Amino acid sequence: MAAATVSVERAASGARNSAALDFLRKPKQLLIGGKWVAAKSGKTFETINPSNEEVLALIAEGDKADVDLAVKAARKAFDEGQWSKIGPHERARYLFKIAELIDKHADELAQLETLDNGKPLTFSSAFDIPAAAETFRYYGGWVTKIYGETNPSDPSFFNYTLREPVGVCGQIIPWNFPLLMAAWKLGPALACGNTVILKPAEQTPLTALRLGELIMEAGVPEGVLNIITGFGPGAGSSIAEHPDIDKVAFTGSTEVGKIILKASAGNLKKVSLELGGKAPNIIFPDADLDQAVPTAMMGVFFNSGQVCCAGTRIFVQREKYGEVVDKLAKFSKNVTMGDPFDQKSTIGPLVSKEQFDRVKGYLEVGKKEGATVSAGGEAGAGKGYFVNPTLFSDVKNEMRIAREEIFGPVGTAISFTDENDAVFQGNNTEYGLSAAVWTRDISRAHKVARSLKAGTVWVNCYNQLDPISPFGGYKQSGFGRELGRYAIDLYTQIKSVWMKL
Ligand code: ADP
Prior knowledge:
- There is one protein chain.
- The chain is of the alpha/beta class.
- The chain has 2 domains: 8-275 and 478-496, Aldehyde Dehydrogenase, Chain A, domain 1 (3-Layer(aba) Sandwich), CATH 3.40.605.10; 280-468, Aldehyde Dehydrogenase, Chain A, domain 2 (3-Layer(aba) Sandwich), CATH 3.40.309.10.
- The protein has helices at 8-11, 18-25, 64-80, 88-104, 106-117, 121-142, 178-191, 206-217, 232-241, 254-263, 289-301, 321-333, 353-368, 400-403, 419-427, 442-451, 486-490, and strands at residues 30-32, 35-37, 44-49, 54-60, 150-151, 157-165, 168-172, 195-199, 225-227, 247-251, 270-274, 280-283, 313-317, 372-375, 390-395, 410-416, 434-438, 456-459, 478-479, 492-500.
- The strands form 5 sheets. It has a 7-stranded mixed β-sheet with strand order 14-15-16-13-12-17-18, with helices on both faces. A 6-stranded mixed β-sheet has the order 9-8-7-10-11-19, sandwiched between helices.
- The radius of gyration is 23 Å and the shape is globular.
- Adenosine-5'-diphosphate binds at residues 172-174, 199, 201-202, 231-233, 236-237, 240, 252-253, 256, 259-260.
């Protein structure tokens, strides 16, 4: 289709890594059974650089026919056992090798991530790419530590459990941390011996495709990892519905999570869902404000606010509301938005035109609802999907800007009367992914952490994420815990074996 419109030089003008530029120039195909192939339909779609709105590359548009082939390849690889039944030391070595290759190509991957997603290169280099390598390394360590149990059965029997892989897994990931989300999904799935069909988000397919090449380079047998790029309806829905996929893991919006859950009922897939959030970020009057203000605000603005655990509802006790909001606003106004390849930029553009329009819409909603714009409040001028870091104050927890996930650099400051009110309002949301508490009072910190209905609570910090610690949601933020040993539960099933002695 629109091949003539692709100019890597123009679209990737900020990038300085020649390997990243070479990768952009190559065809972007599907990975099925160890081979890179065009979509059966021959269709492609564009992936756009959100900082200049230029087409970076054309990507194969996979759909049901391609998913069917990928599932066949994944099933064959699973049943043949060259992955699921090899010795754990050997499988671990593959995961360590993948981590090493990510490290080796870190700059290339960071530049591709920044081009495709718009996040500042300083963040993709310092966070996304090393964290992806660390995730594979962490789960490489688990391969040799996945134990069954012997159970205290009647002495005339011997009963033990085996932890076995689930089988063929469909993994559907979002565009906010493209490589890292692929690592969170693939690390534990591969460690446990499963085979996978990975569907990257249509907005940001590049690093997953490059990761596919690296995983093949690491020597992982063909068919163990299959990658189908394409859209949600089409590629994603065919995975969720497929009768021969055993498990589906999804990270994305609550709305799509519900669609996937329904679609997976056909063959009763195991399902894990990591969905939206609207985290309370509670600043008590005794908090160390020099620490709380910048860290809480970056809990809103990190990744241009396109983070499911963003701490977008900032609660401040009434007596200190004016003083703290002034500080929050001052910090927000000093956050540098700009070219993601410029080292000075703290935030880049939003990922897509769709997201840009959506977030701009919420800026208008907030103004109409009567909130005060204390910082930002407008989209950036010129090319690229830039929205200024925004703080709304005088917000009520009932307003749409405090209830709905905006997924942009937009914080809302809400007042509370006392600890009970802070907890009540903080929990008064349909979501429950994360929360934060800022206080010097240890006992209050523990009490409030226990009372908040969220899968992660941060005390005097924000966005502390590490593969050692579980991550996932209460309420409509989903179910199942990724990371830590909990992800091993998601990707194994337990068999109880009884022997008559
Ligand atoms: P966002 O709203 O943040 O873009 P989505 O939840 O729409 O996030 O998308 C996250 C992932 O889910 C993407 O890979 C997308 O293609 C996929 N997706 C979207 N709609 C569907 C669907 N109906 N079935 C399966 N996957 C879908």
